[in-house]
Give the backbone structure.
Amino acid sequence: MPKEILVNIKENETRVSITDNGILDDFYIERDSEDVLLGNIYKGRVESILPSINAAFVNIGQEKNGFLYLTDIVSPLVEEELSGARKFLDNIFNLKKDPKKKQLAAKPLAKGDEVIVQVVKEPFGTKGARLTSHVSLPGRFIVFMPYDKHLGVSKRIETAPDRQRLREILKELDFAKNSGFIIRTVALQKGKKEIVRDAKFLFDVWQKIKKQAEEKQAPSLLYKEYDLTWRVVRDFLREDVTSVIVDSQEAYERIRKFVFMLIGNEMINRIQHYKGEVSLFDAKNVTKQLNKIYEPRVSLKSGAYIVIEPTEGLIVVDVNSGRFKVNASPEDAAFMVNMEAALEIARQLRLRDLGGIIVIDFIDMTREGHKRQVLQALEKALEKDHAKTEVTKISQLGLLEMTRARTGKTIQSMSFETCPYCSGRGQVKIG
């Protein structure tokens, strides 16, 4: 079966599911009632400085001030003021500049200063948005970094000839000599023309942002990240996608325009308008699969299962053999279950958008070779994840610790609220 992108449009909600051979592989949801800040660029004003944690709170015009580390300041709005201070400190301490080292941590940012910042993590609970001044604009094939003079290629492009070819293309982008670019993995098979077109598009977007920064007063929005339908085209419409099926006439026409602007005519015919009487997600057997991502227990084909339990400080994933039966030694049986579970755990973390510290309790294995294979299987499955992940080795107790960067709310938190009777315990006291 093909790889398909399904776009379901409701009155106040957009849902996107990506299926591979009929299996739900990725899921995204965006509501009109929730203002998404991730990726937005603001002209902000510093409201307060916290020297103890080397950070500042920045007013970006939202209900809560954003959080910005002082080590993360490259905005031109404060660069002129900082340059004199750096020279003064260099003279006092006789510091020599090392291009491989970061700038001084204690930069003289003051209350009332204006900075250009980008949201890298949505507000959560009592915390405001996490900010950075290292602005980046993602395109289909490259990422443009106006303040970072760095030319890089995705680590997932491993062959030396390909990396060299792509680096040479970046060196020819002379219209943005003082900026940086990173080639995305999907650009591996792309030629110079497509990459340059993507780079120029992002460069033009940045020129508009700079112009607004000069004209607007802080706090103000300079750039709003595109909505979910645009991001679908930019980030997910690749050669391996056979069709994008949309159940809204308006969204169908809009996506076709996006495809023409970003890609050209070659993929226009892959955009299809669904007019069936049965809902799109039901027709594609997605609804049943979606309902399962809200359940703590996930069954595996072998009869084994995993249990996913979020706690206040971390996510706990427990692997159980369940009804799994095989004519093999306990060690080999544990290995087979763990291998199957590793693939499903990576998929569930992606579907549920779980982040932070994650502890996986695999079934105990004694052979180091088996542990190594399970670890490699998990790492390979995590390569499909757009979020950054870090994985440690499996311990003697069968525990694996990992982290996954989550930039927004979990899928479950967007779909459920805490029970007012049991306060989230899942139990109601009798009497």
